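Most newcomers find our protein records easier to grasp once they have seen one. Read left to right, the backbone structure tokens trace the chain's path through space. Once this layout is familiar, the rest of the handout is easier to follow. The record below serves as our worked example for the rest of this section:


***
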Amino acid sequence: MMANVTQNRPLSPHLQIYKLIPTMAMSIVHRITGGALYFGTLLVALWLIAAASGSSAFDYVSWIYGSIIGQLVLFGYTWALVHHMVGGFRHFMWDLGYGFEKSFSTMLAKATVAISVAVTIVLWIIAHIVW
């Protein structure tokens, strides 16, 4: 007869046990935006390849990027880039040994969202004014 080896050991906590807090959410979003940047880099590469391939290819890619869907994807890419950068600054501050207090790290996590959204909107407003 085989004994149940886990019977006397406590179970590991799972996501149902943890409460989603801002620092945890920003950690998850930081990882997601990092992965999304790989896809966004392909968009930049496609744009550069189209520019090098001639005016018809560049016009076609510009038409795609200029469509409503293309603009939404580029806006999302811009936000992911900015959000990941702001999150990187937060991690850099932690690497220097600052910002570990619970209230400050929670405020910083919330500020990461606000700053990334604000900077993204400002960048897009400037781009549309210049364009």
The mean pLDDT is 91. Helices lie at 22-53, 55-66, 68-95, 102-130. The chain has one domain: 22-130.
